[in-house]
Amino acid sequence: QVQLVESGGGFLQAGGSLSLSCAASGRAFTFSRSVMGWFRQAPGKEREFVAAITWTGDTTYYADSVKGRFTISRDNAKMTVYLLMNSLKPEDTAVYYCAADVGQPRIRLSEYEYEYWGQGTQVTVSS
User: Fold this and answer.
1) pLDDT for residue 1
2) What is the mean pLDDT of the chain?
3) CB within 8 Å of 27: residues ≥ 6 apart
4) Which of 20, 61, 102, 123 gives a 20 to 30 Å CA spacing to 85?
5) DSSP assignment letter at 35
6) Beta strands of the chain (E only): which ranges?
7) Which pLDDT belongs to residue 28?
8) pLDDT of residue 78
9) Are 20 and 96 in contact (CB under 8 A)?
10) For position 126, what pLDDT does the model report?
11) Rounded distance, CA 87 to CA 25, Å?
12) What are the residues facing 96 on neighbouring strands?
């Protein structure tokens, strides 16, 4: 059974920084052959793509809304993906999910391409 567990969410003021982690586990799960992504869902809105990283971490892709402020990275030995969020804004308030797109190397932006999901972690940014 594959599990993705996010951590690091919290409440903070605008302009602050927060680092999210997503730890993967599961015997059948090949983390090093999975594109890993972060998505978020704000109240009353659809879930949206935030960032993704390829197998080896050599390529990343960001939504325009977070480009230059967020950084995605991964540690395949620890089976963990990270999202460093700087200069946070109230509009970044959402539940953040990590997700795994297994067995193919390209970054894809649609949530429907990702097979495994974490339970989410809440990030709240006050103005």
Assistant:
1) 81
2) 96
3) none
4) 102
5) E
6) 3-7, 10-13, 18-25, 34-41, 48-53, 60-62, 70-75, 80-85, 94-102, 116-117, 121-126
7) 66
8) 95
9) yes
10) 98
11) 31
12) 40, 121
Query: Are 48 and 39 within 8 A, CB to CB?
Result: yes
Quote the tokens at residue 50: 């935030």
Sequence letter at residue 100: A
Phi-psi group of 15: left, alpha or beta (phi > 0 → left; psi -120 to 50 → alpha; rest → beta): left
Tell which wins on pLDDT, 87 or 26: 87
Per residue in 28-87, pLDDT (tens digit) is: 678 999 999 999 999 999 999 999 999 999 999 999 999 999 999 999 999 999 999 999
